[in-house]
Write a structure and sequence with these properties.
Helix content: 25-40%
Distance between the termini: 36 Å
Strand order of the largest sheet: 1-2-3
Largest sheet: 3 strands, mixed
CATH topology of the largest domain: CBS-domain
CATH class of the largest domain: Alpha Beta
Number of domains: 2
Order of helices and strands: HHHEHEEHHHHEHEEHEHEEHHHEHEEH
Mean pLDDT: 89
CATH superfamily of the largest domain: CBS-domain
Strand content: 15-25%
Low-confidence stretches: none
Number of strands: 12
Length: about 300
């Protein structure tokens, strides 16, 4: 069962008005036509019978954290990274993997997308006002919203990253500490990957910094690092018997991002955004005197640029 996430509740609360709606400015309302150019068509679209491993391969290749499932060219579901993490050991769906396929990881990854996808999904059309899309993302905590045409055919998705790229010109030189998330969910650098996946699922985050006993930053297990590890087939090269239990026993540091950005709290947000866009990254760690004090993700930056 997914646990309540105080951090996400706080993130939403600091950008909501008293009527429970996002406190975005009139600039958004006056630029509704931009929804069309915000649609990212790079999102993978698969059939209901596509094996999960092929879905992850597409996520790895396209650097996207979800796949849309379409039946007869109509949107019927979505699989996100958290669904995959839940199934592979992070949550209650792990029992399905064990009961049906035993411990064989390749067989576990052969499950059809329709058996793992979320059918009760939120989506919009090109005619949906941008302000409404942002409202759905903030209140629902969605990192992306699928977009369809009037018949239900998937066209792509509006993502946090796409909004950041479109509106980054609005950001001033305020320091990143004004927008970062302070209560960072972390894990021990020498810990197990299975423990990190459970943290991701229970807290709803997509990035877990790994911290050594001395407080030093040792890496970050992110949605992208896990997807790349499986989608590139490195997972099969590094497991001796190909068991899902071996996968969960891996040291989390083996699957962690090494290309990470660490900045000081006083760093201007506009400078950080420029660095992240140039390197194709979607988060940065904030450290002071070598000690981790915060994390800033696409979601934090989205709130900053739209609420500026």
């Amino acid at each position: 069962m997914k646990l309540p996430n105080p951090r996400r509740m706080y993130e939403r609360a600091r950008w909501l008005r008293s009527d429970g709606k996002p406190n975005f400015t009139s600039v958004v309302r006056s630029r509704q036509s931009e929804l069309r150019i915000l649609v990212d068509s790079n999102v993978p679209v698969v059939s209901p019978q596509t094996p999960l491993l092929n879905c992850i391969e597409e996520m790895c290749r396209r650097r996207f954290r979800a796949v849309l499932v379409a039946k007869s060219n109509l949107l019927s579901g979505i699989i996100t990274f958290h669904d995959i993490a839940d199934y592979l050991g992070g949550g209650y769906r792990y029992r399905v993997a064990l009961d049906r396929y035993g411990a064989n990881l390749f067989r576990v990854l052969s499950i059809a997308s329709q058996e793992l996808m979320n059918r009760d999904l939120t989506y919009v059309t090109l005619d949906t006002p941008l302000e409404r899309v942002l409202e759905l993302m903030v209140i629902g905590g969605f990192g992306l919203i699928p977009v369809t045409d009037e018949t239900g055919r998937p066209l792509g998705a509006v993502t946090e990253g796409g909004i950041v790229r479109a509106f980054s010109w609005r950001v001033g030189r305020k320091p990143v500490e004004n927008f970062m998330t302070r209560n960072v969910v972390v894990s021990e650098a020498g810990g197990r990957l299975g423990d990190v996946l459970r943290l991701m699922v229970s807290t709803g985050v997509r990035r877990i910094p790994l911290v050594g006993r001395d407080g030093s930053i040792q890496g970050v297990v992110s949605w992208r690092s896990v997807v790349d590890y499986i989608g590139s087939h490195r997972v099969f090269e590094n497991l001796r018997e190909g068991l899902i239990t071996e996968f969960l026993e891996l040291r989390s540091a083996e699957v962690a991002d090494r290309d990470i950005v660490v900045v000081e709290p006083e760093t201007p947000l506009e400078r950080l955004i420029r660095v992240l866009l140039e390197r194709g990254l979607d988060y940065a760690l904030i450290a002071k005197g070598g000690e981790l004090v915060g994390i800033i993700t696409e979601r934090d930056i989205m709130y900053a640029v739209i609420g500026a």
